[in-house]
Amino acid sequence: MKILSITAQKPNSTGSGVYLTELVKEYAAWGYEQAVVAGVYEDDEVELPDGVGFYPVYFCEERNEAACEEKKSGMAEGEAGRKSGTVKDGAEKLWFAIAGMSDEMPYKSTRYGDMTPDMAKEFKKAFLKTVERAVKRLKPDVIYCHHLYLLTAAVREAFPEYTVYGFCHNTDLRQMQKTDLERAFIKEQIRKLDRIFVPQRAQEQGVREIYGVDPEKITRAGMGYNSKIFHITGEKKKDDVVRIVFAGKIAKKKGVISLFRALSILDYDKGKLKIYLAGSTGNQEEYEEILRLARECPYEAVFLGRLLQPELSKVYNNCDIFVLPSFFEGIPLTVIEALACGDRVVMTDLPGIREWLLETAPGADVRYVSLPAMKNTDEPLEEELPEFEKRLAGALMESIAKGSGGTADVSGISWERIAKEVIKK
């Protein structure tokens, strides 16, 4: 079996990148021949199993902004000859930052909503040239494209003779709702995919409504986690301090500002609660506001930065409660990982998650907080936030008061199961 996996983003960052990489790892263990096409910066270290071919499209690095602007200027004047230049290893190179499926990525990025038609044209040209190289060398039996968006649509159109599967990661649905970029083209080509895999029921409904996909083409694959890394180790501290952990992008849309506001109204002993935050920063202005709220918070807050998975597992195992006050998610991988490490969970009542966890993680101690009214799919109405933050504080207090209980059975969730589900189609 020969498999080509494609993403416009970094393959070792964000939930969709983890999804791609974990499937590649599973198939590598089975002895399948594989290659990956991905968008990266030139100094990124991409971790893939030995023997997996890697075909990068290089975007403009943050620290070379001036050089990128010079390149862009030269292109406009016709000096470059072609807008997608090449680097010494023959890889395609684009003059703008990585196109991110979220409006705020954990690294420098270009919003699809800010792409000009010329940028979109060059984006497709660079990736299709790279995919063509990979296809000629690998001759794949199947192509896996992550995100039901511009790149997947372009690949479907350019390689009609190949079997192409698409993977929905929820942020693609949000882009289709918020962004006008080549929407008709994307819808047309996504409908032509041979199969589409979605995390759960809510995304299945979104794919049907937004793209008009035949329901027979859609498979609910769920989400996996690495049980070799995330499991109970018995390292929880035996003192009377309650430790709460958040993992994800440190940003407003992840609910971090509301989390600190909720903590400020929490009625609990000041010296007996501690909050840990693991993850990269997004918008700098938002981050400064979060730091200010953290300084004013009655409880100690520790910012851990982005952690490798083994380090994150240690944090989960040292904590009692995982909190995810996010305003928009697909199936949040962090929730599964935290449950696997024995944490209780407080999270927003995101579409489809409650039902999915009941089916796949029996015994999970999860408290759901109803969302505020929203605009643009992921932006809460400001006037709704005070009541939301009261509900969040209440759910945290309930979880604290209950103390430790039973552990969730997450044995039915694995990347191996998903890999088997995908390959049998």
Task: Quickly count the helices.
Answer: 14
Q: Roughly what percent helix?
A: 25-40%
Nearest-integer average pLDDT: 90
Overall structural class, as computed from helix and strand content, comes to alpha/beta
Describe this structure in words.
The protein is α/β, with parallel strands linked by helices and 425 residues long. It has helices at 14-29, 65-76, 117-138, 150-158, 171-178, 183-190, 201-211, 256-264, 284-296, 309-318, 333-340, 353-360, 385-402, 415-423; strands spanning 2-6, 33-40, 53-58, 85-86, 92-93, 98-100, 109-111, 142-146, 164-167, 195-198, 218-220, 242-247, 273-278, 300-305, 321-324, 344-348, 366-369, 374-375, 379-380. A 9-stranded mixed β-sheet has the order 4-5-3-2-1-8-9-10-11, with helices on both faces. A hairpin with a 5-residue loop joins β4 and β5 (92-93). α1 packs across α14 (415-423) and α4 (150-158) packs across α6. The protein starts with a strand and ends with a helix.
